[in-house]
Amino acid sequence: MSLLSRLACEKDVGLADKYGLFWQVIPAKYFAEWVNDAAGLERVMHEVIQMTKLNLAKLQKAFAGK
């Protein structure tokens, strides 16, 4: 197992596929809204990089600038 895969396992990040890549699932309705607002998407990404598991309520607040 690669170092990245071990770190992802330790942090309990998303779902792993058969290749050892880890994925987080974001509902399409949020993604479709977020990609149309660069400033909002930047706030969301700032929150995402700090999370081990996605917290959609927190991401929605970040997108709204709250």
In words, what does this structure look like?
- This protein is mostly helical and 66 residues long.
- It is 55% helix and 6% strand.
- It contains four helices and two strands.
- It has helices spanning 3-11, 28-34, 38-48, 56-64; strands spanning 15-16, 22-23.
- It has a two-stranded antiparallel sheet.
- A hairpin with a 5-residue loop joins strand 1 and strand 2.
- Helix 3 (38-48) runs antiparallel to helix 4 (56-64).
- It is elongated and about 35 Å long.
- The chain starts with a helix and ends with a helix.
- The model has no long low-confidence stretch (mean pLDDT 77).
Structure in a nutshell:
It is built from 4 helices and 2 strands.
C-alpha Rg (nearest Å): 13 Å
Task: Specify the biggest β-sheet.
Answer: 2 strands, antiparallel
Q: Please report the distance between the alpha carbons of the first and last residues.
A: 39 Å
- Give the beta-strand count: 2
SSE arrangement, N to C: HEEHHH
Poorly predicted sequence stretches spanning 5 or more consecutive residues: none
**Average pLDDT score:** 77
Strands side by side in the biggest sheet: 1-2
Helical fraction: 40-55%
Morphology call? elongated
So what's the oligomer here? Answer: single chain
Structural class: mainly alpha
